[in-house]
Give the backbone structure.
Amino acid sequence: MNNFITDHGLIVIFRGVDIEKIPATVNALYEGGARIVEVAFNPSDENTIAKTTAIIKKIYETMGDKLVVGAGTVIKKEFVDAAYKAGAKFIYSPNTDTKIIKRTKKLGMVSIPGAFTPSEIMTAYNAGADIIKMFPITKDDIGYLVNITRPLSHIPFICVGGTNPDTIECFIKAGAKGVGTGISILKPELIEAEDYAEITHLTKLHLEKIKEARSL
């Protein structure tokens, strides 16, 4: 599964999308070529487990096995367990927490924790992480990214935080295996207007940029 994620290269992040709009949204993403999505927990919402797992289940109900679905903003072990029971295939976190990583691996899911410093990256990797989510990262951090990942070139990483069609090339050229994004595809105004054709277009654009960058 981790090879599928890095080979595909695009994780689309769901955050704040109403459940009734999930079927049309995931179909639009799929038409654009997306194959991996992540549904983010909201730790400030006391009902986030019920809401997030309901969306994960709705995506599977709509798409079956056509999409790989993971859970994001996983900062508590109970989030890991709830995501697993809902059918999540990978766990995506904004931070490095070895307890989360080890629980994820024990349940047989792909672990993608967030890290930024060399020590965080090594701590996550040594705890069993499959892929490192460099977060938060922007195009202004490219020099830093290159400097810290070259000596850690054996560890696959993706970039999240400043991803859009204009920045994908610099991340891929710096060594990233892929990118994660929500706002540059699932724009709130597009969801509100139910402009699913534009969501499909933006998905295609992101994937084209990844393919172009990999060919350079």
User: Anything to note?
Assistant: The longest helix spans residues 196-215. Strands lie at 10-14, 36-40, 68-72, 90-92, 110-112, 114-115, 132-137, 157-161, 178-181.
